[in-house]
Fold:
Amino acid sequence: MIERWRARLARWQARRSPAAPRVTLDHRRIYILPSPAGYGYLFTMGLVLLAAINYQNSMAYALAFTLGGLFVVAILHTYRNLGSLELAAEPPASVFAGEPAHFALALQSQGREHLGIHVGWSAAQMQRCDIAPGQGLRLTLTSPTERRGWLAAPRIRLETRFPLGLVRAWSWVDLGQRALVYPAPLAGPLPPRSGPATDAEDHGWHVLDTGVDDFQGLQEYRPGDSWRRLHWKAYSKGQALLIKSFAEVRGRDPALDLDALDGPLEQRLSVLCHWVLALAREGRAFSLRLADTVLAPATDEHHREACLRALALFGARP
Amino acid sequence: MNKATGVNGPALSWASLLWLLLAEALVLLPLWFNVPLWLLGVWLGCSLWRALLTRQRKAAPGPLIKGALLAATVAGLYATVGTVIGLEFAAALLVAASVLKLLEVSTTRDARVVVMLGFFCLGVGYLFDASLAWALYSLLPLGALLATLVALEGPAGGRPVSMPLRRAGVMLAQALPLLVLLFVFFPRMGPLWSLPMPGDRARTGLSDTVAPGDIAELAQSAELAFRAAFEGPLPPRQALYWRALTLDRFDGTRWAQSDPGAVRQAAAWQPQGPGYRYRVIEEASGQPWLFMLDTGRLESPGARQGYDFRWQRPRVIDQAYSYEATGWPQAVREPSLSDAARRQALALPASGNPRSRELAARLAATSADPAQRVQALLRMFNQQDYHYTLRPSPLGSDSIDGFLFDTRRGFCLHYAGALTFLLRSMQVPARIVIGYQGGEFNPRGKYLSVRQYDAHAWVEYWVPGRGWASADPTAAVAPQRVEAGLAEALAADEPFLAASPFSALRYRQFAWLNELRLGWENLNYGWERWVLGYQENQQRQWLSQWFAGAADLILPVGGGVTLLIMALLILKPWRQRLDPQLRQYRAFEKALGRHGLVRAPAEGPQAFANRAGRMLPEQAGHIQAFTQAFSRLRYGAQPLAREEATAALRALKRQLPRPKRIQHDRS
Structure:
């Protein structure tokens, strides 16, 4: 029953404030209710009012009304303290399963001061921050990772009770952040080549026209090229970013194949992950085959990322 | 940034604790006049102890110590106050609770509990004293309590100490319109149930048993008894005899009421001569009597007139009380006297004061007319060697004899007592009237202030066919007492208000000081008249006068409008969006965004400009120019950069190629 209501509430929230990478808090996203201290305050106000009525005391009336007026002012101040704050998500860095995932977000004041803003995923773990007028603040929320695949950040809870602590204004914001979690690398034997060989001599090796062995010349840097081959000397002299290009002696590249390994699926993926990392560190070209997905041999960063991504998302629904 | 957060909120910071202790000190100040003073010591001890505990980061004392302290305090309160019912005990208990709670305050939640207790203490303080001075003062504790709440919620350090106070002041000011609206229009009602009143403590004022010494004591007090404002002209000063009650039983030394408990029928009387309509605001007296310009009618719910023309309420007056009355100083009072009343007005002790009785017998022989006998006695007081003084010589057992024949020095009660005794000895029914005479006129507020030193006693005697007539022997001895007031009637060697050297009334000879005093008193009068007196009747009158028919709509409609205005003023939706600099930067981002250049959330303006310059090399100059102007404007506080930024942005927009969809890698 409670679960159903919770789900309904979540759907309603999702409709009311859909996920967006940049969100400005406004009246549609801010909820406001008295805090426990606020209920105590209202109770005190009631007592003073009761004393005023029973003792026919004008000043006690005035005090009760002052407390009431202050409560209304506190609602407006607390709302203002959270309202118009802008949140922006940064795409989180990918991590390996078991490492904590860091979700960075930026809070930007649009001209107002925001004091005593508590940010977090659950009421138990909130970070407090104060933002000066017009200034920004960057903070990181951390989540443990257990499984590979996409890890969606929960809705972020922003809460403030400033200035009087009598009223609690909060907002649940979904910045649509999700981090890619790669399989945890696991050392193991290099998978033997399997499947139909393209060449009789090839046993786990592929041939590539660019390699690491023989210097060929300089090329202009394209995003994704390995930083290891940057021509730093030229760059430091003020020239453009150049990449040293090598021709590799035609040889055989390792071909990583999921089906060639034995054991549980996750363990096999972890082993492949280990080899992707190891080969990329050495700058060697390799290919990766995961059932129907085949990634042709390459050495650059793009290739490494693509391989890790494929490993992380293998078997997941697109 | 993560703070250790316990179940009861984060630990209390030093700054918050200081605010809390300050607020507590300010809240308790008015209450020290009404609770046992030894609590002051408990408060000091607890505050210091708390400060030390927080300074040294030590835990609060254990439950055993706290329990023992609580038990000892409650027992001590019971021992000093003497009763557990009554407002005094409740207030003392409340003070004790908020003081002892200080020991426990180690988290923000505890601190908030103390603040809530503080709000309630503030309200209880008004039950004892709601005068203008205290009302103005209470802005301090209220502000300090709010500042404490702000400090509890505010940033830990690196902020000016004044921030909580400033915020509290702003919020108080913003709450003011709602306070005024609710105060005027919130429906007032009678008490829901009866509660003990703060009337038990001793107050200066008249009482129903009077020995001469009591009035001498009153004459030393400048405390306000009541204020009266007249509709129409002020009566002559000689007519300002404010009747409270009569004393008609004499036991040889003291005068008292014959049967104070018995409620008797009001005697018959008829208005005659000029009538004066006036409004009185009576200060809390702890007595039920209302003050009448001798004899008259009074409009006050539940008030009754007694057999001796006095008026009184069913309950004692424990806070300022306002009523309207019409008085006829020359009214015809009780033309026919019942036998019982006559007996009562003639009763004397069987023996004592032989010389006075002999004098009465001699005088009785000269004239049969009561009025002539009175005139003869007044002449005697006037012509013989009698003096008006507040420091009479002590009298022996036959006090009337001693006064009339030996000391010949006394004040109103001596003369009134002697006159009544002599008249009764001559078989003329007579009694002492106690009340006030005169009053100080405040020309700004056009009202009379009557103080305790205006307390007076005079005589009324009964004449067949004419009823009761008044006679003031004091006027025969010291006419200035009636015509000008006590200060003028006293001899030069007898200082006025000797017991209160700091009373502003002693320095009436300094014109500016007197002006200042009268102005302040006038403010107080307005306060009591319009604010403290604003209860059920007055609210009904006022609302029907100004908002006839629409009174029910005022609160919801006015409330709605007030809330709307408050929300607009506080939230400032027109300023909600962006400040001009950021708005300009947004326009810059938007222009580049059309070309697929989106600033990453953590990308600084300069980094973004560099990236944009590489992507749009032709516009790089304008992009850099704008970004630099923006930086100088925003971070270097150079307002002149404004024009540069505007020009650069305009040029950039003009030069940018037609937007075309450029794919950018943001998945």
Notes: Chain A has six helices and 17 strands. The longest strand of chain A covers residues 114-122. Residues 248-313 of chain A form one domain. Chain A has two domains: 2-181, 248-313.
